[in-house]
Structure formats: C-alpha cells, structure tokens
UniProtKB/TrEMBL annotation:
SUPFAM superfamilies: Acyl-CoA N-acyltransferases (Nat). This is GNAT family N-acetyltransferase. One of its GO terms (molecular function) is acyltransferase activity. The lineage of its organism: Bacteria, Bacillati, Bacillota, Bacilli, Bacillales. Its EC number is 2.3.-.-. Coiled coil: none annotated. The keyword GTP-binding does not apply. Keywords: Acyltransferase, Transferase. Residues 7-159 form the N-acetyltransferase domain. The keyword Acyltransferase applies.
Amino acid sequence: MNSQKQIRLKRYTAEFNEKLGEFELPAEQEQFTAMPIEMLEVTEERHPIVILSDWEPVGFFVLHSSERVKEYSDNPKAMLLTALSINYAQQGKGYANKGMSLLRDFITQEFPNCNEVVLAVNHKNIPAQKLYEKVGFTDTYRRKIGRIGEQYIYSLTLG
C-alpha cells in the first residue's frame, strides 16, 4: 500500500455509487459476503460505510443497530458488522486491515452509544478470521448456522 494514501472510513453517500457499482469479487470471496451495490439502503438502523483510499472507495461494509444484532449479542449497545468487502482490483494493499483498524475510533466518534461490534465469519473463511483477530476481534465461541454453513461469532469491545 502506498504510504502516501490516506485511508479513512466514511458513511456512505450517493457520491460513491458509481465506484461501488464497479466493485468485483472472485467467486470464492463472493460466497462469503454481499456486493456493496446490493447493500446501500440507509435507514436509522442500517449504516453503510465506505473504506476510502484518499477519496476513492476501495472497501465497504454495513453497521447494523437493528433487532438483528440480538442474534449475535445480548448487549443492547452492540452493533453488527456485515458485508465487508474490498474491491478485487484493490486487494493485497492492506486496505481491509487498515480500514478495520480504524473501526474502533470511527464507531466511538460516529456511534458513541455503541460499546461492542459483533460479526459472523464463515468457518471456511480463514483469511477473514485472521484479519478480524489481527485488528482486535475475539472469537466468542458462539456459533450460528448461515446460508453456507457454520459461522463463528466474533466481538470487538470498545471503550
């Protein structure tokens, strides 16, 4: 990754539509996530987030504060992270690691009532498990059956 590029997280706005629509993922990754363009609906309980390199979208994920979070945590102040992806053309440059490393500060600033982030990662998705662990998520040892098999529930405590 070019050290001159500034990596930041930003709430989704329509200005990012074109670039997010150009995202591509190989089939082995697409099975584990959703394409950004499918996940752009913004509501009070659904917050699409863009990972930017300078001002170019290179990654994407969604934070949820809906009832769905209860499937993953008993904590009423938790948020659920879903649909993390890095555009295939931008992979291997450290954007996922850097973006997820910014998560703690971003959530503290943007969602001050949140004190935990939870997510589900497929048991076969070893690269994602390693990424999440590297940036501070821990395996809760809770399990959930997803559309393509067993998922591990990970947690990141904030504050």
